[in-house]
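Lecture 7 notes: from sequence to structure.

We start with a single chain of 339 residues. Read the sequence below before looking at the structure.
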Amino acid sequence: MKITVLGAGSWGTTLAILLANKGHEVTLWAHRTEFARALEADRENKRYLRGIVFPDNLHVVEALHDAVSKAQMIVTAVPSHALRETAQGFANEPLDDKIIVNVAKGLELKSGKRMSEVLLETLPGLTPESVAVLYGPSHAEEVVRQQPTTVVACSLSEKTARLVQEAFHTKYFRVYVNTDLVGVEIAGSVKNVIAIAAGISDGLGFGDNAKAAIITRGLAEISRLSARLGADPLTISGLSGIGDLVVTCLSRHSRNRSVGEQIGKGRKLKAVLAEMSMVAEGVLSSKAVVDLAGRLGVDMPISQAVYQMLFEDKPAQQAILDLMQREPRSEREPGSGYN
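Now the structure, written as tokens:
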């Protein structure tokens, strides 16, 4: 299959290498011309994945048209805040019989839309059945070294999800199928915000008890928002839900957890982001999540606290104290399973 990956960060490059190693004809597109030329000349991504050599059937291009025009499957691996602009760049391309697989996790800042909704709104030739996402606990640093990983391919069309499963599934990269697009995308997006909270806990020097509370109550927030949007509750117990939440809250590879840790140590967000070469999706997603929850009337106190610490300079110690001093309540709420 001819597959194009849009976005040459660590995850996009890792997936391009995985697909090429499986025998697909793979094209990798980088947003910046000079970066694309360096990737093709070096035959490795020295910025993000130094030492991992590109397979011969992985080719890097500079022009978006060249990347998209001949592809049967397009993988969008640009940051969530750049997805609409990237998609607009090939909105006039014929998309008949093409499948688009988004792997960026987040909600659009101003609209609160999921990434599949952004694609469908931006690409007039795209049908809902042609859109899929690939989500789950999957750090590029481990996948590129072929360490065992499980993810979920999700689409409203089970046929499309299975085509994505077939394209990506390998002996070390196990792909499951799901058709609950709302649940998978919401879980995969909100978990980044909760991971920042977990990092803040680390930065404050708190222990396992606090981390377990953040993960568990964060899962409750994901469940409430997902349920309000009509998702299947079982999705939250799967790979894109608790699976991705746990790995992002605990892993040393997690950029979102790392941002939170620095905030917990008292540093300002602007200074933390200035030192990062990769995107922590949870930072902007925190605002989108809080805005969406507010419009829907969904209680998400941890997400709200993360937003306040990041963008309103609320002291981390005070934010945690306020969370702990909320009115005592029941753990379970009739109808949603969570409170």
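The two ends are 46 Å apart (CA to CA). Keep this in mind for problem set 3.
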